[in-house]
Design brief:
The protein is an alpha+beta fold. The chain has helices spanning 23-35, 50-57, 80-87, and strands at 13-18, 38-43, 66-68, 74-76. The chain is globular and about 30 Å long.
Length: 89
């Protein structure tokens, strides 16, 4: 899979694509904050090209939250447990 290198996060963190109105995004952010897991949030309604990137990762759908892990893989609406597992924490 190919992702824009600027969106591949540092080890131990994730990049989360979101929107301002997404309840699932707010929940995941709250869980990550509580666990002390770092993330970079990218609002696909504000950052040009990111809605298309998210759609390319989700079979044409602009589904959020979509996250990118340090190894370049992605997940759509992952649980906190899935994020922790992918990060090895």
């Amino acid at each position: 899979m190919s992702t824009a290198p600027s969106y591949v996060p540092e080890n131990g963190t994730i990049t989360m694509f979101s929107t301002g109105w997404c309840g699932y995004c707010a929940r995941l952010k709250s869980q990550l904050d509580k666990e002390g897991i770092g993330y970079t949030e990218v609002n696909i309604e504000e950052v040009p090209g990111t809605a298309e990137l998210v759609a390319s990762l989700n079979g044409g759908n602009q589904t959020v939250p979509t996250v990118i892990y340090p190894d370049g893989t992605s997940a759509t609406n992952p649980s906190l447990i899935a994020v922790k597992s992918a990060l090895g924490v």
